[in-house]
Here is the input.
Amino acid sequence: MDFKTELKQYQNQIEQELEKYVRKEACPERILNESMEYSLMAGGKRLRPILVLVTYKLFKDNYEVCMPYAVAIEMIHNFSLIHDDLPAIDNDDIRHGKLTNHKKFNEATAILAGDGLLNNSYIVISEDLLNTSNKYELEKKLKVFNEFSNAVDRMIAGEYVDTEFEGKEISSEYLEYTHKNKTAALLKLCVRMGAILAGAEEKELIKLTDYADKIGLAFQIKDDILSVEGNELITGKPVGNDEAKGKCTYVSKYGLEKSKEILEEMTKDAIEIAEGFGNKAEFLKGLANYIKDRNK
Amino acid sequence: MDFKTELKQYQNQIEQELEKYVRKEACPERILNESMEYSLMAGGKRLRPILVLVTYKLFKDNYEVCMPYAVAIEMIHNFSLIHDDLPAIDNDDIRHGKLTNHKKFNEATAILAGDGLLNNSYIVISEDLLNTSNKYELEKKLKVFNEFSNAVDRMIAGEYVDTEFEGKEISSEYLEYTHKNKTAALLKLCVRMGAILAGAEEKELIKLTDYADKIGLAFQIKDDILSVEGNELITGKPVGNDEAKGKCTYVSKYGLEKSKEILEEMTKDAIEIAEGFGNKAEFLKGLANYIKDRNK
Here is the structure.
C-alpha cells in the first residue's frame, strides 16, 4: 500500500474512534459539548494519534490496545489549539479554514471547552486503566499515564513562553526551548506511548525518541515556512500570521533558506533512524517525507 | 480538641503539603509557575482536601495515604477559580481579598495557569499510582482516579451552565442542576475519595455521599447569602456581586428567609447522618455547623 492510502486509512480509523467520544445527549451543557465536538472533529491531520498506532505496530499487531491513548492525545492537541487561539493568547480567527472555537461560539464556551477536552483525555485514560486486569499491561499503562501528564505540562509551559516572548527578540536557545516544549514534547510522547505499550526495549525507545525529536523539529520548521509561503486556501490559516504577531520562528531567526536546509537535514536524519527498524518502518519513513512536503 | 483548633491544624497541614508542589526553578516559564503558586497558596479554606482526610479518618488512621488526592483536588479547585474569574466568564477582580489571577498577571497567563493546575492534579495522581505496588491499594486508587476525572467533568459542565444562563430567569430545576454539578460534584468526590481509599463499605459510602450532598447544598446557599449580606472586608469578595451580574442563586430564586431555612435544614440533616458514625464523626458535625455559620 502506498503511504497516502495508508495515511488516509489511519485517519479514517481515528475519525471513527473519536466519533465514539462525542456526546450527543440533550443536557443543559449541550452547547459546550457541541463546542468540544466542533474542534475535535474539525478534520486535523491526526498525526499525533497515528504516531501512537504506527509506533506500536513496529512491535505488535493488535494496535487497538493503544486506541484510548491515541484518542486522549488528540483531545489534548485540540484543547491546546482552542486555548492558543483565544484573543488573550494568539487571537486567531481561522483554523483548518473554519472559524476558531471562540469565534464560532464565544470566549467563555471556548475556555470551558478547552478545559473539558483536557480533562476528558484523563477520563479516557482512567477508564482504560480500570478495564486493565493484567498486571504487566497495567504497569506499562501507568508509566504511559505519567509520561502523558508530564508532556502536557511541558506543552503548556512551551505555550506560555511562546506567548510571553511574542514581539520580542529571543535567543536561539529560547526558540529551541519553546519549540521543544510546545510542539516536540507531545510528538515525542506519542512515539514513546506506542513503543512503551508494545513493550519495546530501552534501546529501541531511545532510537524512537530520537526519531520523534527529528520529525518534531521538522514539523515546527515546516509550519513556520508555511506561515510565510503557504497557500492560505490550502493551509486554512492566513499567510504572514506569525510575522504580523511578531512571533519568533525558525524563519524569522534563520531565514527561509537556512530553515529549509534544517528541514531537509532533520527529515534525512529521521528516515535514517526509521531504516534501522527495517521493512516495518516504511510508514515512519513516509511520514517524515510527508511532514517535509506537506502544503498544509 | 475543639473544632476550630482541629480545623486550623488540618489547614496548616494542607498548606505545608501544597508548598511541596510549588515550583521555584529559574526556568523560562518561571512567571507561569508564580501565577499558579499565587492562586494555589492564596489561603483558601482548604475545605475540599480536609474533607478527604477526615472522611478517611473515620475508618483508618494513616491518612497520609490520601494526601496526593487532597492536593490534587485543591489544585482542581484553584484551576476552576482562576478560569471562572476570567473576564469572559465571571469577570471578577477580587478573590480572597486579593487581585484575581488575571488582574495580578494577565489573561494569557491566567488561562495557562489554570490549564497547568488542572493538568498538575493528574501528574500528582499518576505519580502516586506509579508508586503503589499493592494490588488492592492500586485498585482503590484507580477507582478514585476515575471518579476524580468524572467529577471535574461535571464541575466544568456546571460552570458552563452557570455562565450560559447568567442574566436569565431559570427554573429551580436548572438552578439545582448547576449547583449539583458546579459545586456539589467536587465536594461529593472529596468525601467519596476518602471513604474509598479507606476501604469503606458500600452502605457507608452511600451515607457519606448523602452527607456530602447536604453540606454541598448548604455551602452553596451560604455562599449565595454571603454575596448579599456578607461583610466584604471578611469575605474578600464584593457584596452584591451575584446580583449585579444577574446570577440566578438560591437567594434570587427563593428569597433570603427561605434560603436560610433550607440552610438550617441541610445542616441538621448532615449532622444527623454524621451522628450515625459515632464519636469519630465529631469533626464532620463541626464542619456542617462551620459551613452554616462561617462569615467568609
